[in-house]
Amino acid sequence: MRNILTTLLILLSLALVSVFVAGASGAWNRDWRTASRESSGIAPEPAVTPEAVVQMYAARAFNWRGIFGVHTWIASKAAGASSYVVYQVVGWRLYRGLPVVAVHEDIPDRLWFDSRPRVLADLRGAVAERAIEGIRKAARSYPYPEEYRLWPGPNSNTFTAYVARNVPELGAALPSNALGKDYLDGGRMLAPTPSRTGWQFSLYGVLGVTLALQEGLEINLLGLVFGVDVARPALKLPFAARIGVSRDLTQG
What we know:
5 helices; five-stranded antiparallel sheet; alpha+beta
């Protein structure tokens, strides 16, 4: 046990060094007003894609937050629709007296303030149609519409993980650096993983253990996740997320 803790402390120290290096390089000083929100070109064009589409995305959070984690969201297009509907939680809405859950027609695959998204789930056709109805219901039943905390949650990743747990068609594993994904609803401490291929124990997103086919083994210490993915071999570390085979569906 002592050797395990020593190894974790060394890894955490290296990760913290990377934070200060990133800060010294100016990664904390970007202006959101000039950051790009254009399409990344990932999502299928509605004009040439009549079938239903559902995609889940993750992109590095803006400014210094991106050093610690990602922002996740879901986009859907019903069969024959000419536009996408985007589902996400945005913290600043709370400061304007609005529910944090935003559901609106939008460009589905926008850069998240300069950060290019990657695809965590990609559904088409009949399975996407089934998922769309489940996503709508889950967005309406999200238990924290008037709450937002960057750490340990509930936040944007808490929302996406909640939707995934309630929509089995998604079958998506959120990145290990999706801070807030382990903040379980209703104060419970045991729940299926977002991919629904295993289980996780979590104490308010601060301490926990996950074991699942897609997520692999994850150990959550104060919101920082260490672990290993066996299905797509990779080592999971805070800030770096994973070192090994990518889970980005745009890369095959």
